[in-house]
Write the structure tokens for this entry.
Amino acid sequence: MAEEQRLGSIEISPVAIASLASQAVLGCYGVVGMASRTLRDGLAVLLHPSESSRQGVQVGLEDDRITVDLFVILEYGVRVSEVAHNIMQSVKFNVEKTLGVPVAEVNVHVQGLRISDPG
């Protein structure tokens, strides 16, 4: 019989998962940026890239399940459902590929639409 040897454990911080998710979102077509989770005076607040864009990501870890909630602002004129679906796939793929842990759920919350600056 082979004896199993336990070397230790690996813990992945929700902040690390949020960072991976944020990078995946910002690489998707149609995304203007990450948004704060709360609306200010009924308007979405676009997080500046130098700020922590992880603020627009909420990670839940429960019973070995990872859930990711993303708060985004999209480009005006894009097909919202298509872009949201692409965001879900990209985040799920990147997090699972990097961490080797399955992602149970990716939820995209579109906080607003913006016309991006032409230059």
Q: What stands out?
A: The chain has one domain: 14-114. Helices lie at 14-26, 80-99. The beta strands are 31-34, 57-62, 65-75, 103-114. Residues 29 and 83 are 7 Å apart (CA to CA).
